[in-house]
Specification:
Keywords: Membrane, Transmembrane, Transmembrane helix. By secondary structure, the protein is mostly helical. It contains six helices and no strands. It has one domain. It is 72% helix and 0% strand. Helix 2 runs antiparallel to helix 3 and helix 2 runs antiparallel to helix 5.
Amino acid sequence: MLVSNARLSSPTSGLPRNALYNLAAVAAVFLSVFLTLGAYGHFAAVWVQMMGEDTAMLRRLLLMLPGAMLAGTAVLNILLSKPLWQARGFALTVALAGNLLTMAYLVYLLIRGVPGHPIGTFLALEMSYFILLVGIRAGLVWPAVTETPADAETK
């Protein structure tokens, strides 16, 4: 079996890949599953109110908004999981923006005080994922590459 010399002499062959992008991609899929379940639960809970004849259109839209935010973020994270796995910069930026928007809305709902809703659970999931994305954006690398004094002398 022959091995290509081009692959062995690649300039990036000695540099380790940042595995945090892979972790973010897997976390995006898991978060999407939970957000989808949350959106389904929300729509199931408010469906009867939304379909009532005496419910105004604005009230219907406001009842749909939390579920739509959860479902939209779930779709966004699923779509961005492959580009995140490939360590694409645009995917990180879009994921940060989309999840920040959802996180801000969940904070608003938590402050407003909606009784009987698991907003805190979804906020904790969103914040955990957002902290991971901010860490990647800030330059956090895993596995960390340390430079020994012998490595510094050879430069």
